[in-house]
Amino acid sequence: MSNYQLTVEKGEGYDLNRSLFERLVLKGFPHQTLTMQHRMRPEISALIKQLTYPDLIDGPGTQQRPNIRGFDNGNLIFVRHSSPEDHNPRLGDQDGLTYKSSKQNTFEAQMVLKCVKYLGQQGYGTDKIVVLTPYLGQLQLLRELLSKDNDPVLSDLDSYDLVRAG
């Protein structure tokens, strides 16, 4: 959304940053909601249940998963910090009404990438790690930082060839 005047937050009724699906649900159109989830750890789905899906059930495959290796504080971690969002001239006018880009925070992006690297050191492959961010600007920043400072990704076949080669 590039114009604050047309957003849900402005409250003028245009709500152009609201999805068509959400608009239909709010207007009372028939719909079905997810009743059982099969991907999230129960610690994560508990947050979703509090916010929007109070009747959501965790599938059997989500139960009894081993704790994440290397993290002593549990399987869900929140970090409080005081590093502000980056000053980004691409965000638009001083009045904040027109946005050309999305929010980003370099401190958070660097912290996330350090966590991803740490999880890799604990033996987790890229097929076991997911990073979620609500901002496209943050996603772009994460990709940019990762492309500047990443180790080559080896598949099982690459690892086999390296071991075989000594």
Question: What does this 3D model show about the protein?
Answer:
This protein is an all-alpha fold. 33% of the residues lie in helices and 2% in strands. It has helices at residues 20-26, 42-51, 106-121, 136-148, 156-164; strands spanning 36-37, 57-58. A two-stranded parallel ribbon has the order 1-2. Helix 2 links the parallel strand 1 and strand 2. Helix 3 crosses helix 4.
Summarize this structure as a short list of keywords or feature phrases.
single chain, 166 residues, mainly alpha, two-stranded parallel sheet, 5 helices
Concise description?
It contains 5 helices and 2 strands; from the N terminus they run H-E-H-E-H-H-H. It is an all-alpha fold and 166 residues long.
Write the layout of secondary structure elements.
Blueprint: H1 20-26, E1 36-37, H2 42-51, E2 57-58, H3 106-121, H4 136-148, H5 156-164
Helix pairs in contact: 3-4
Tell me the series of helices and strands, N- to C-terminal: HEHEHHH
Mean pLDDT, rounded to whole units? 82
Give the low-pLDDT segments: none
Q: Mind telling me the C-alpha Rg?
A: 21 Å
Q: How does the major sheet shape up?
A: 2 strands, parallel
Number of helices: 5
Strand order of the largest sheet: 1-2
Structural class by helix and strand composition: mainly alpha
| Intertermini distance | 54 Å
What is the 3D shape? Answer: extended
Beta-strand proportion: under 5%
Query: Percentage of helical residues?
Result: 25-40%
The count of strands amounts to 2
